[in-house]
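Record type: ASSEMBLY
Status: queued
Input:
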Amino acid sequence: MNNNVYIRSERSIMTISLARILFIMPLVIYGFYKNGIYLYQNDYVSLINMFRPLYFIFGGAIIGALVNIIYERLIKKNDDSLLTIIFSSFHVEYGIILGAVMSINANIAIFLGVLFVVLFASKFTNNRINTMAFCFILIYIIESTISSFVYANPYESANSFSLSFMDYMIGRGPGGIASTHVILLFVAIIGLELTNSNKTSIAISAIAIFTLAVGIESIITNSNFLDNYFINNYPFIFTFIATDSVTSCYTIRGKVVFGLAIGLLSFGLSLWNAILAPYIAILVVSLFNNLIDRKANILNK
Amino acid sequence: MMISSLIIEINKVGESMNGMVSVKEGKRNLISHNVVDFLNPDYVYIPILEDFSIEIETNSQVFKEEVMLRKGSKLVYAPISGTVIGATESMRVNDREVRCVVIANDFREKVNHKKSAMKYINEYVKEDFIELIKKYNAYEGDIPEDIKVLVVNGIDPDPFEKTASFIIDNHSSQILETIDAISSILKLDTTILAINNNDSENVINLTNNIGTYPNITLRLVPDIYPIGFKEVLVKSILTKKQEKGGYLYLSAQDIYTIYNVLKRNKPMTERLVTVGGNAIDKSFVVNVKIGTSLSDIIKNCCNIVNDDYYVIVNGLIAGKTLSTLNNVITTETRSIFLNTKDTQKEKKCINCGLCNSKCPVGLNPKYLKDHKRADRSKCIHCGLCTYICPSKINFKPYLGGNDE
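Status: finished
Output:
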């Protein structure tokens, strides 16, 4: 009885999830414009396909919600309110983020099917691996086997561009459906930090070390830094996928080491496969999150 | 105003300190602006502390402020006048069974001698000052020879308490006079009175009056939890050098008690206590006799709106739950809450790290929960980790110290 709790903060998985979803929404709106409205206006896609970006984003959210409802209601026999059940884990957010990093050319049935299976399976894996990274890798492998996995939308495929720094900043570079706008991404990082809804130090340390590594590589190989750096939306992936709450480090020092490890490994792997690199890096490093937390704090004692 | 503006400092260190959160105003019950008096209980219960001898015989008359118990130079005084009707085993202090002397109130507040008031309390010499405050139990700790800093905590440790705030509000001139006197008697270099920056009435009140006391620094600290805890406050307002050099720490209640001791040789017989919680219709601050039973206060002062309540003392976040209402008000009782239990279901840890990043003493509650043998001695039991956890994990059972 003496350990009763009488008052708690309003912070919950739902409020954290909603904050993250809220800050991703401007990127989604821009993604809808870039990969939907703009393509329709220029006759690259039909009216129905104009909404394709939203099918991925909201399809992902619905799958996430559905998995939570099935698991909580049917398996755990949880009788909480529907809203509480939908946000009983981060699965809705996972669905939206995966929709945001998916290629507009991906097969939507494969995306939703794999997403459902992986999200549902993740309910039984005790949060051992980063669900989003694993899901993306699986979709990539399946898509690549069937056809090919390319980020460029029909407009980008039909034209050739020389993108400036500002082009990348305002999201005109190729990439995921809603993961290209760098300015909106930085606004999201600031917002998430202010609302305590993100492990920002992971994102910042990963972005910093990756920037440094790509910068050095660009100097050595005399290649275009901007293309190397922005083309596969690494900052977005570091911000939203590497920071997955349940599979990342949680101590102050651990988070920095975790981010550095992901940034460095992503760079190393990007020399082999630039699209898969950050996901594999996140998947691998997240396996050692507890170890990193422990060692990072022991070393600093 | 010129002088006071020079010595008011807004503490920005606190805002950037590791840990601490703002508890939203909406969660706090509005507290009645006036102090409620409950100074005439039928009985008061004086706990017979270990090794104390009883100085009054059963069925004899006792005067208010008369010595009831003694252990060497330590004395316990009667808070009311009346008849000693014996000892009882049925009462508790902080939920521990303690034998108590029972005094039946004659409602006359008789004292057996008139004490003249000291005109200037800063005229005491250090030795007399220390002897007096020890004699009247105004301060339990030792006062080292070489201290140079005095920290007065005018902040309520729990965000739902208003006890310290009311003490300062009702006795601001006495508080300032006493702090100034202590500073002068002990020849201190630095004297800090810390209050919350949103405690607007006290900020205005003290700002207007502090000009008379140029050696007191009024420190406004942000209204974040748990800034009112000694360890956290001291860390946020003192430099490391000041902290290491030794300091005297007193609460607003301590200061007011010392004032009464220095001014009139009057021991502490009553105190302000915040009464709140969601099981009563409104929160208030009550002035009660030391030794009053909680059941008397609740029966006479509270309008219960929800019977499914628990009684918690000294804070809704970090307080102790009592198993019975047969507990008595002691000099340490700051607040009583009648509150329902939070019934939100505990979920699996999401590894967010908030418990770790917000801990004011830098502990890792998640690690302590999983490792029984880990060192948790630094824990100040503020309950912030449990309060902040989005998975609603209750860390209290894993941090020790609550069931003492």
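Annotation: Residues 7-181 of chain A form one domain.
Annotation: The mean pLDDT of chain A is 92.
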